[in-house]
Amino acid sequence: MNGPWVEKYRPQTLDDIVGQDHIVKRLEKYVDEESMPNLMFTGPAGVGKTTTALALVKLILGEYWRQNFLELNASDARGIETVRNDIKNFCRLKPVGTPFRIVFLDEVDNMTKDAQHALRREMEMYTKTATFILSCNYSSKIIDPIQSRCAIFRFTPIKGQDILKRLEKIAKNENYEYDTEALETIVYFAEGDMRKSINMLQSAASEGEKITNDAVYDVVSKARPEDINSMITKALSGDFMGARTLLRENMVLHGTSGEDMVTQIYQDISKRVMDEKMDGKIYMDLMEYLADCDFRIREGANPRIQLEALLTKFL
Amino acid sequence: MLWTEKYRPKTLNEVLGNGKQKKEIETWVSSWKNKIPQKPLLLVGPPGIGKTTLAHIIAKEFSEYIELNASDKRSYDIIMNTVGESSTTRSFFNDDYKLIILDEVDGIHGNDDRGGARAIGQIIDKSKHPLILIANDFYSKRIATIKNKSQVVKMQKVHTNSLNAFLKKIAHNEGIKADPVAIKELAKRSTGDVRSAINTFEVIADEKKTFEMEDLDIISKKDDRLTIFDSLRTVLKSKTPKKVKDAMFIEEDPTLIMEYIAENIPREYEKKNEIKKAYENISKADLYFGRARNSRNYGYWKYASDFMGIGVSLSKKDTYKKFTKLTSPTSFSYLSKTRGKRNLRDKIAEKMSKKLHISHSVAISMFPYFEIIFENDEDAYDISDFLELDDDEIKRFRKKKIPKKVINAKEKEKIKNREEKKKIEIEKGIYIKKKQDTSTKTKKSPDTTQVKPEEKTKKDLKSQNEKNTKKTGKEKKKELLKDINEKNTKKAEENPKKEKLKDRKKTEDNAQKSLFNF
């Protein structure tokens, strides 16, 4: 397989998973006992929730895992009806060659409350034939009845050292020379996100024979949508309409989520204040507005409207 | 008796306006009377100008008529049962035609009236009787096929002057003291809709037998609902809380009103801190809409409404004395403008989602990295090959096509790999085949048969491969396979007989085992 490295180097077994030892240990017990409760994996992006689920499923269902496993992206544009129908049709059938079937639902926290209640019913109805693994970024966004039905596993950001080791391994395997400094830079920017680290590594590697620090910095600046920077510059110079158009382009066309926009805006203004291009006082004010904006989005407000309002503060 | 009934025209001449069209209809009728069959007549035009009335007047010219209109449910079966049969048969004894009227054909509902349009098509094709179809919207998709098959008569709005004269006639008839200016105004405001003009006139004047300008004001205020632009203009132009609050009472989705206001704030307001204040109010309104949605407590809407109404209106220091062209939210038109690009994005995300076990949003977040990686020809080929991207999708990540050279080289490599695999499989095949021979079971699945021999060989080679254990599965496999090749060829060279013997022994063992199974 020559696909993206994130898939090529996805750990296939539980003991190959990096940085989540406490979780792996407990999961291995389920494998020994050949039974498991409904599970909920929570934690930030790129720390191994899906990977762990896949490895666990393969181990516990053995060679028939494909027939007895359903993977659904709950948050995708599909309606809850589709999700429910898929789950229903899957759970109605008896497990083949395994004690039970497994449904893996990704990003459950992006489902609406109504959809979550519907899901809860499905979970109750098929307790005999199917076990659910749910994954989410924030368990607080999951309704209590679902939380109480699951054993909750909290995934933590992966430690820099662990990411570094894995990156070295991949680089060696792909026959790339590398500067350790370059990998350290990746680790710094990836913030404990293994998927991001590996994507950055492959991007940096595609630029030449050797993975250098410059190449990594190049990737970091390229991969961060430059629109964000010019959007902020525009807003700061008083061109609100221009900034607003860029914002909409980013969110509607590129599909950047509100949370990502907030993070990127934060990174951008941080950089400005670090480079001494922005006054500290102004920064603090903007940061406070940004924090408020972040909070409102999480409270269920419309991210685009909130960010448009945020842009006016830059004027 | 309702005035609309009382003053409904009884003959073609009494119908207001549309002289040319009336002549066309007359010819159509007389042709039928002379037993010359005509195409169906399709009357199209805005409401209230007398299309149905015309149809009924025509009906008098024929001995019988059947009518089906929008209030009836019009599925295929219903239409065929009520109209279909009678349309294709003609009486033996009676030579007369029956007129069939289908009213509001553009209102046939896609789902509820399943097959309705098809039924009408069939009736048009087969009917031996005169057929009149009536529709409002000339451009409706639902009548596209019908238009081709029929004689289209486009009915025009009734001119203000003729409507004015008609209303005066009614006033005279009913003994109403009417202000001519008011009547003229009513005729004008009715925009050619005779029915609504008569209805309005009746409501106001029937009881009190007078009709003045003031009356018109009361009626039109009740009737003309505020549009979203009216509310928007009030919010942006007024500073009076009462006016603004009134303006917020319109029948529209409040979040849509919010979008309209937000869109136009920077178009109307010029000072930075006005925009800031106004948008802060929008942000708060939005927050309460979100809270209402989440808690299903729609009582929160009233706060939202005040924030985006009064809040925004008071954010300006002074009212601007200028004309601003207000627009509908561009974020919506942006959505439709970018549909193509978004579809492409979603198609790619869907492919990635399946192969990489990620959600759409995570897939899209990887696009920037793909843009960088795709600059490298070979990586671009590898990844698009893995994700099965088509040319358009590849274009999303790199402008240039992947050079033919690279593709050819890569494809050669692929074939070579496949052949190597085959070779190895053939080597293994000896083993598989024998296993199959001995166990009478047929292949269950290619997976199970392949995995086992691999494990076996792995064990054999474990000691040799200690160095490689750290490599990933794929690399390991490749090297392993190489080793197997070498080993096998070596063995074959050194001692072919011995190898064969060994194999035979294995099969015998297996055969015995399988015997026990039976």
Question: Features of this protein?
Answer:
heterodimer; A: 315 residues; alpha/beta; Rossmann fold; Helicase, Ruva Protein, domain 3; Zinc Finger, Delta Prime, domain 3; two-stranded parallel sheet; 7 strands; B: 518 residues; mainly alpha; 5 domains; 5-stranded parallel beta sheet; 5% strand; disordered C terminus
Describe the structure.
The complex is a heterodimer of chains A (315) and B (518). Chain A has 315 residues and is α/β, with parallel strands linked by helices. Chain A has three domains: 5-154, P-loop containing nucleotide triphosphate hydrolases (Rossmann fold), CATH 3.40.50.300; 160-223, Helicase, Ruva Protein, domain 3, CATH 1.10.8; 226-314, Zinc Finger, Delta Prime, domain 3. Helices cover 57% and strands 10% of the residues of chain A. Chain A is built from 15 helices and seven strands. In chain A, α12 (240-253) packs antiparallel against α15 (303-313) and α13 runs antiparallel to α14. The longest helix of chain A has 19 residues, at 280-298. Chain A is globular, with a radius of gyration of 22 Å. By secondary structure, chain B is mostly helical. Chain B has five domains: 18-154, P-loop containing nucleotide triphosphate hydrolases (Rossmann fold), CATH 3.40.50; 160-221, Orthogonal Bundle (Helicase, Ruva Protein, domain 3); 228-335; 339-402, no CATH class; 413-512. Chain B has helices spanning 3-6, 19-33, 51-59, 76-88, 116-126, 144-149, 160-174, 180-189, 194-208, 213-223, 228-237, 241-247, 254-268, 272-295, 301-313, 330-337, 339-356, 360-365, 367-373, 377-387, 391-397, 404-438, 446-461, 473-494, 496-517, and strands spanning 41-44, 64-68, 98-102, 131-135, 151-154, 177-178, 210-211. In chain B, the strands form two sheets. Chain B has a five-stranded parallel beta sheet, with helices on both faces. In chain B, strands 6-7 form a two-stranded parallel ribbon. In chain B, α4 runs parallel beside α5 and α7 (160-174) packs across α8. The N and C termini of chain B lie far apart (96 Å). Chains A and B meet through α1, α9, α10, α12 and α15 of A and α13, α14, α16, α17 and α18 of B.
